Amino acid sequence: MATEHDYFGVVGDYWSEDVEYADQRVEVVLDAEGESASTAALDAAATLVGELELVDDELRGAFVGQLDSGSSPVVRFLDTVLDSELEQAEDVEAAIGRESGDRQVDALRSLSLVRVDLRPEADGDGEPFAEFEYGLAPDDTDERLVAVIDVAREIVDVRFEG
Q1: pLDDT, tens digit, 9 for 90 and up, residues 86-126
Q2: By CB neighbour count within 10 A (0-12 exposed, 13-18 middle, 19+ buried), where does 119 fall?
Q3: According to the model, what pLDDT value does residue 31 have?
Q4: Helix axes 52-65, 39-50, angle to 10 degrees
Q5: Upper half-sphere CA count for residue 90 (Cβ side, 13 Å)
Q6: Looking at residue 136, what DSSP letter applies?
Q7: Is the pLDDT of residue 2 over 70?
Q8: Fewer CB atoms inside 10 A, N or C side of the chain?
Q9: Long-range contacts of 83-86 (CB under 8 A, 24+ apart)
Q10: Partners of 25 in the β-ladder
């Protein structure tokens, strides 16, 4: 059975929409069985969609904070995509739109938010409520940096997929 929500409409198994903000087109996906997602969780998901730019900025700040740890997923992601021997090195360099003098920070600020997966069934503290998938030159590279947050927007996990 499906649930109806003011923002998402009828919530069955899958809802998807392209959202534009900050010169980006982001695929937003809601993956939930209608009756298992509470109205409060769906409201939180709708609020998150409306505040994508704010959450995106918070996550990028958290990524910068992980640069000090040489073994973090953020550092491993950057080491991979910024490798000058990478076949797509020119595409990656072209995607970096900032020149502050700190190449890693410039790359993080130049990431494209590719996709946001919302899981309103996971609405407890520490549960994976939303996944934000980032890429640098995402049309040319397969490497992704994924941040997982809970309903309170606390980071649950950051991982490098590539």
Answers
A1: 899 999 999 998 788 899 999 999 999 999 999 999 999 99
A2: buried
A3: 84
A4: 80
A5: 1
A6: S
A7: no
A8: N
A9: 86/141
A10: 20
